[in-house]
């Protein structure tokens, strides 16, 4: 196991023997939304991004034991790229080190995309203090086909063959295959 992976797992509080890899780490500031997909994946959205993607009135006032309420997503088409072997080769040919969000976005927006729409509700809670949110993915050891790029919040984000990239108007981010398949549907042509 790499030293960097050990450092990240210790920072995230993940026991080193768990079969998980850290996708990214983000810090929720007081007032940010911590969103949980049906697969359990958590991520952070500013109030502005949350309001752009979800209706801010919860479906009901019921909350789970962790304070999450259910929210409906706003219908919005998103440009997505499936990271096939060919796409991963293009990425690896283009970048020899971890690119900034800006450089990776400039590259990704020129890839062939498909239209997809988020198709499920999510659970979310509002952070009442600053807290770290760790997004993990099922680990597969030292996968040689893992690539890193800088996320819009400045932390490394991993990308593997089989994942999906969402290319919005101003950023690009990764969604793992399992999470994508359980939360998105491709639009009919």
State the gist of this model.
The chain has helices at residues 3-12, 47-53, 85-94, 101-108, 177-183; strands at residues 20-28, 33-36, 42-45, 69-71, 77-82, 114-118, 122-126, 131-138, 146-150, 156-160, 164-167, 172-175, 184-186. With 189 residues, it is of the alpha+beta class.
Report the major sheet.
Answer: 5 strands, antiparallel
State the helix count. Answer: 5
Strand content: 25-35%
Q: Order of helices and strands, N to C?
A: HEEEHEEHHEEEEEEEHE
Output the radius of gyration.
17 Å
N- and C-termini, Cα separation: 44 Å
Number of domains: 1
* Average pLDDT: 85
Helix content: 10-25%
User: What's the total number of strands?
Assistant: 13
Record the strand order, biggest sheet: 12-11-5-6-13
Protein architecture, described:
It is a single chain. By secondary structure, the protein is an alpha+beta fold. It has one domain. The chain contains five helices and 13 strands. A five-stranded antiparallel β-sheet has the order 12-11-5-6-13. It is globular, with a radius of gyration of 17 Å. The protein starts with a helix and ends with a strand.
């Amino acid at each position: 196991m790499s030293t960097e992976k050990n450092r990240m797992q210790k920072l995230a509080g993940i026991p080193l023997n768990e079969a998980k890899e850290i996708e990214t780490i983000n810090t929720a500031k007081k007032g940010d939304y911590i969103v949980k997909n049906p697969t359990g994946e958590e991520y952070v959205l500013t109030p502005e991004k949350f309001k752009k993607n979800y209706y801010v009135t919860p479906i009901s006032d019921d909350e789970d034991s962790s304070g999450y309420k259910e929210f409906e997503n706003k219908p919005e088409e998103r440009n997505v790229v499936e990271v096939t072997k060919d796409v991963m080769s293009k990425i690896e040919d283009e970048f020899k080190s971890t690119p900034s969000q800006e450089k990776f976005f400039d590259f990704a927006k020129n890839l062939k995309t498909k239209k997809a729409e988020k198709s499920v509700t999510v659970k979310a809670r509002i952070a009442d203090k600053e807290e770290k949110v760790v997004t993990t993915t099922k680990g597969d050891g030292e996968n040689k086909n893992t690539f890193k790029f800088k996320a819009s919040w400045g932390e490394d984000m991993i990308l593997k063959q089989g994942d999906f990239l969402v290319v919005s108007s101003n950023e690009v981010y990764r969604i793992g295959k399992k999470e994508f398949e359980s939360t998105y549907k491709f639009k009919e042509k």
